[in-house]
Specification:
heterodimer, A: 1 helix, 4 strands, B: alpha/beta, TIM Barrel, 17 helices, binds iron/sulfur cluster, iron (chain B), SPASM domain-containing protein (chain B), 4Fe4S-binding_SPASM_dom (chain B), oxidoreductase activity (chain B), rSAM (chain B)
């Protein structure tokens, strides 16, 4: 197994058995995918880091607020 | 050569560490001190950055930023980003203020001026009609979002609790007529002289929010005494309005968390004529207090720090900034006032926010059975993209723009309130420093925090820019 390269919660490494690149989430302890080249693996990590899914607009509102 | 010129990057140093923060994607990184020429400005556009980093020794950072752009960690705000869209017009929050009475006279009360006027009271049947009207409008609009209703923001609910209870029963009855959820929430109280009926209700409701003038000794004692009437299992949340000359923030959190499950500090919007009013000198004293708080937090061990943050409440001004930085959420507006929230005054007048009641400039209409809801459409609260100063501000999507009521209180006619901007900038800087320092010391801290506070932790990347760029370089 090649040396793992790490960025925050994410790791990539080359699976020597087939030469593909693996993206691994160390927090979720989950393999996120296997890619034919390193650039695609890095794109995948960038995609996960950028994840906009939970970017729903949220704005300040005081449920229990009061003006006094 | 940096190609796009629209991106403003926040650059700052604190306690010997330097950082950059990029607005559109809300990423931040630590950089080595010597890496960036800051031109002594708080933030730079890419063009300015390039000009000031033209010396050979800065070429490394220019290359790093180009890589961040290539992989879209920094994006061009004019073209690539998600923009604010006003939702289908209808309301999700309705606050009815049937009266302005109060049993206390807190100096900072936002309803103080209104209280001096002749006190009308909104009849209960009228309140019910208003609730029906707003709910029916949502139904006609085929709105699927929930309708949250509360009462008595400009008065203390304990004084008219029977009124509140009757509205609660009314809401329970009408719920079945709508496909979207309708819920009520108990407003904050001063809890100075709660009657048994209120106490019983809270013990069932299992949540109590108290707003306290922490410097009023008599009130403080009485409120703490009154807590003995509340069952242990009730979640107790305390809001303390804070002014620029408030005592040490750490002791406020520490002292009151002995009595309450959560403590939220809220920065006060003070009339410019008041002796406590914000000014430059008081602002710098206040910012020092926030620095002291951050420095104190960084002396704590991992477990102590988590315990301390666990006790900070959901409406705390500082904690909200921390959570926004961690979740990298994108805030387009400061608050929903007038956009998805409206309030009604004791005179049946409709305003975007209870704090603005009585200011004719912001009156949206007067409720009647013939009210055309379209008349309430307004742009009192604008998206940060529509406010000149905010549209190029690097922290706009964390700040959300100025508070309209605060500007009014400070008698500001311009677009933004510099006092508010200064506080928000400093908070962003100090909290970025805080997140990075905690991350270095306790790498799993924010994962634990995420679980405890139910806040998404999207700081799942390396905060060290050199490491980050190395990882992504082929
Ligand atoms: S209010 Fe001030 S700090 Fe907030 S986005 Fe506007 S300019 Fe920036």
């Amino acid at each position: 197994m090649a040396e793992r390269e790490k960025c925050g919660d994410f790791e990539i490494y080359k699976d020597e058995s087939d030469g593909w690149w693996v993206v691994y989430d160390t927090k979720k302890k989950k393999r996120l995918g296997k890619f034919i080249d390193k650039n695609s693996a890095l794109d995948k990590v960038a995609f996960f880091i950028q994840d906009e899914k939970s970017d729903e607009e949220e704005s300040e509102y005081e449920e229990t607020g009061s003006v006094c | 050569m940096l190609e796009q010129q629209y991106i403003n990057i926040l650059i700052f140093s604190y306690n010997g560490k330097s950082y950059i923060y990029t607005p559109e994607t809300r990423f931040f990184w630590k950089i080595s001190d010597s890496e960036l020429c800051t031109n002594k400005k708080r933030f730079l556009s890419l063009k300015e950055l390039e000009e000031c980093c033209s010396e050979k020794k800065y070429q490394g950072i220019i290359e790093q930023i180009n890589m961040l752009k290539k992989r879209k960690f920094i994006i061009d705000e004019k073209g690539e980003s998600k923009k604010f869209e006003k939702k289908n017009f209808s309301f999700d929050y309705l606050v009815i203020n049937p009266s302005n009475e109060c049993n206390l006279d807190c100096w900072f009360c936002y309803a103080k001026n209104e209280r001096k006027k002749e006190n009308n009271k909104l009849e209960i049947e009228k309140s019910k009609e208003i609730i029906r009207y707003f709910a029916d409008f949502k139904k006609k609009r085929k709105s699927e979002t929930a309708l949250g209703i509360s009462l008595f923001y400009t008065s203390d609910v304990t004084l008219n609790f029977e009124y509140f209870r009757e509205i609660v029963l009314f809401i329970e009855q009408i719920k079945k007529d709508y496909s979207f959820p309708i819920y009520y929430f108990l407003p904050s109280t001063n809890f100075f002289s709660p009657k048994q009926g209120f106490v019983d209700f809270v013990n069932e409701y299992k949540f109590l929010t108290v707003t306290l003038d922490s410097e009023n000794e008599e009130v403080r004692k009485k409120v703490i005494d009154n807590l003995s009437k509340i069952r242990k299992e009730v979640v107790k949340h305390l809001i303390i309005p804070i002014h620029p000359m408030i005592e040490n923030l750490v002791s406020l959190y520490s002292y009151y968390s002995k009595f309450f499950d959560y403590v939220s500090l809220r920065i006060l919007r003070i009339e410019s004529t008041h002796p406590q009013a914000w000014d430059k000198r008081k602002l710098s004293t206040f910012l020092k207090k926030i620095e002291n708080l951050i420095d104190y937090l960084l002396t704590l061990k991992e477990k102590e720090l988590l315990e301390f943050l666990k006790k900070i409440g959901p409406t705390d001004y500082i904690l909200r900034y921390l959570n926004r930085l961690l979740s990298r959420e994108k805030l387009f507006t400061r608050c929903p006032a007038g956009l998805t929230a409206v309030c009604v005054s004791p005179n049946s007048e409709i305003y975007p926010c209870s704090s603005l009641i009585g200011n004719e400039k912001y009156k949206l209409g007067v409720w009647s059975k013939k009210l055309n809801m379209q008349e309430l459409d307004n742009d009192v609260v604008k998206s940060v993209e529509k406010i000149k100063e905010c549209s190029s501000c690097p922290i706009r999507y964390i700040c959300g723009g100025p508070c309209v009521d605060w500007k009014e209180k400070q008698s500001i006619t311009g677009n933004v309130n510099k006092i508010e901007c200064e506080i928000n900038f400093r908070l962003v800087e100090l909290l970025i420093y805080f997140i990075d320092t905690v991350n270095e010391r306790f790498p799993l801290f924010f994962n634990k925090y995420e679980k405890e506070k139910k806040v998404k932790n999207k700081i799942n990347y390396s905060l060290d820019l050199n490491q980050f760029v190395d990882f992504f370089s082929m």
